[in-house]
Amino acid sequence: MNIIGKDIPRKDAELKVTGRAKYIDDLTFPNMLYVKVLRSRFPHAMIKDIDISRTKNNKGIVTILTYKDIPGVNVVPVVLMDQPLLAEKEVRYIGEPIALIAGEDKEATEDASHEIKVEYEELKPIFDPVLAMKRNSPKIYGKDNVFSHHRIRRGNIKRGFNECDIIIEHRYTTSYQEHAYIETQGMIAVPYEETMVIYGSMQCPFYVQDAVSKILGLPYNRVEVIQTATGGAFGGKEDVPSLVASQAALIAFKTRRPAKLIYSREEDIESMSKRHPAVIHYKSGVTRDGHLNAVEVKYILNAGAYSTLSPIVLWRGTVHAVGPYKCPNVKVDSYATATNTVPCGAFRGFGTPQITFAVESQMDELANKLNMDPIEFRLKNILRKGDRTVTGHLIKDSMELEKTLKKAAQIGWKIKKEESKDYIKRGIGVACNYYGVGLGAGGKHLSKAGAMVSVLGDGSVNFAVGTTEMGQGMETVLSQVAASELGIKYEKVSIVLTDTTRVPDSGPTVASRATVMSGNALIKACKPIKKSITDIAAKMLGCAPSKVKLANGFAGFEKKRINLDDVVSECFKEKRIMSAQGWYKAPYTSWNKATGQGKPYFIYSTGTNIAKVEVNLLTGEVLVKKIVAVHDVGRVINPQTAAGQVEGGVLQGVGYALFEEMDSRDGKIQNTNFSTYILPTSKDSPQIVSVFVEDPYPEGPFGAKGLGEQPLIGVAPAITNAIFNATGIRVRDLPATPEKIILELDSRQGKF
Amino acid sequence: MIKIKFTVNSEEREIVTEPTRTLLSILREELGLTGTKEGCGKGECGACTVIMDGKPVPSCLVLACQLDGCEITTIEGLSENGNLDPLQKAFIEEGAVQCGFCIPGMIMSAKALLMRNPSPTEDEIKEAISGNLCRCTGYTKIVKAIEKAAKMIIHHG
């Protein structure tokens, strides 16, 4: 039985349902200290004085550290190196770390954090990402507060619009989105002889290694990073765990004691990264026959006080700024600007959900203006094999957007034509999207992955990769890949904790890249071992190695079968290679910064979402009844796990569309808990129909592409398009809260 | 400090502690039962749900002074001699687990539901777990797993 494409139970499920999985807060070390971070209460201020004289002698307090205690460099390394670990003279957002307090117990550190007096001199802050670019606004980064600017130039934009019969132009805005991983950020730093060992919740151990090494002034080989079971991440544990780990590590380094730092929920929401709020000006035009002919976009992200990952989030958003459509004339300008607000970063979709909301709202409105069915209109414009994207990338492999669109339409597309008299209005909406898998040209130097496989004497297998399990199912999918490749039973294959000492730097676990990158590295690592097994099995079976078939714990030749455990045992007697490293380098990508032309990604996943909603005209509430989510992600390795990714992504998309509104006033986030920041509950979960169309990607492991982020991206516009279909209200500011719907209804009273 | 006597997973416990200490802290730090998780510390996420005298409660909102004489069941008390509870089996089979952090609390809420209502409707299941936030799964497979566990219990006692 081939186990690829089968619903194999997750490797980590039993540990998790019994409560035996060890998350970071479940670990303790002898003599361990508890760490608390002292944070800025002002969005922009000079620090005049920090008075720790009284507090440092508090009972139970061991040490209080500021930037002056950093032995290495005071910088959290990401892209532009502008963020300090601990503020020096100036603070730039509410929640910015200023000092670290370590004590014998949580209560002592908590109490001390309230007693330390910091004297500030307030400076003029800037909160608006558009105003930040104006000449007379306060400057917190460079001359213009612009961290990053990207552009696409294709065809002739002026002529393009001249050729159009219908042109629409609108402004779209989107809110912050909080990751709301249920496990907050947490790390333990343990000094062990000359090495600083870091345990914790994270996506990217090699980022953490780099940060701790820079802060402590230690070489990489003296910083070991071990990922513990990670309770959700969604991008929110990509770069910011570098801060958390470095904070714990600095205390551990100075005191030579283990140091634990677990963020409270409020602290986590206040100070950790989020999805960027966006301001988007979108102009698009079509010819009368329904061809998209010109698109002009200005895309602005509110990056917050430090650049962190914003330059690459912005880049990905720029690449996807026209959606999965052909368009001959394109002009895109995008900016990530600095404001005195919490730094934003990676969140599932990485700059594409915001722009896809604008793209798909425009597409819906254009179809409406053309009096054309939205699906028919999209079918005229979507990318197919042989087409070029707006960046000039000729699509050669695996692009089945058309199939997803047709499949979704077949499952449930019936556009509402008649007006119901009821105060409950029903509507349907569609949205397409595509997504460049992997880091692409924006993170080229990281586009690599390593794997280590070791078949042990009893036929069991350990493997290690440099990417991480954070709930998405990587451990299970890669175990299937290794088991299938070696022919060894799935039950005998285990992953070992992701640890920087086991595998080379494999880049981050982001960009839906783990299956393709680590999967390919793993297959390469299996090759020499497979050869050992095949050679020995051939001898035992009396046939040529090329005739041996390995599957499900047996080696076979014609009708003869022998147990692989016996073959493995024979391999050990013969001293054959039974453990090996694999290395995979991503295919070529390119990008011309001046024109925005090139091959930004080596492959794209695509998808179509159809949403059915009910809008209550009395309350403004939107109820999502059903989402049909059809995705093209290449070959699906584990359908159950893949469906789980879609269902979870869809509900995060529903939250993004309707509920999740972060109220930031004067740089202060007002809703720092789950009674005020509203997440979808079980009662908000619609019926979700998840379907995959599978067109194998020749470069992917067993034909797989990437999936993780894809399910969220198109959900919000499918819902807002359905709201339009139901009520005629075009929501251009996410989320579509009842208040906004009611205000819109009030402004057009009498029209229904 | 107060002395309290209570039962955890059928085992008698007697501890001396601050009256305002939370049950969550007692379970995790005093008794080493780290299966119960803290997600918010304010009773908003449900990750710390345990069963107290037959009812699901967020253990972060239960104080030591309320515990005397109570009977507590945590995720560690659900499987006996390595035999998983039908809920645990169903969660595995249905693929209802992703990051897993909400799962102990989710299963305890579901357990409390099935104890009082052995064959709940889909709406009753959704209602019973509506205080347990899960950010990974979209709840779809969790609801299916609870339906499946209910059937398993009815068929096999």
TrEMBL record, chain A:
InterPro entries: Ald_Oxase/Xan_DH_a/b (IPR000674), Ald_Oxase/Xan_DH_a/b_sf (IPR036856), Ald_Oxase/xanthine_DH-like (IPR016208), AldOxase/xan_DH_MoCoBD1 (IPR008274), AldOxase/xan_DH_MoCoBD2 (IPR046867), AldOxase/xan_DH_Mopterin-bd_sf (IPR037165). It comes from candidate division WOR-3 bacterium JGI_Cruoil_03_44_89. GO terms for molecular function: iron ion binding; oxidoreductase activity. Residues 18-124 form the Aldehyde oxidase/xanthine dehydrogenase a/b hammerhead domain. SMART domains: Ald_Xan_dh_C. Its cofactor is Mo-molybdopterin cytosine dinucleotide. This is Aldehyde oxidase/xanthine dehydrogenase a/b hammerhead domain-containing protein.
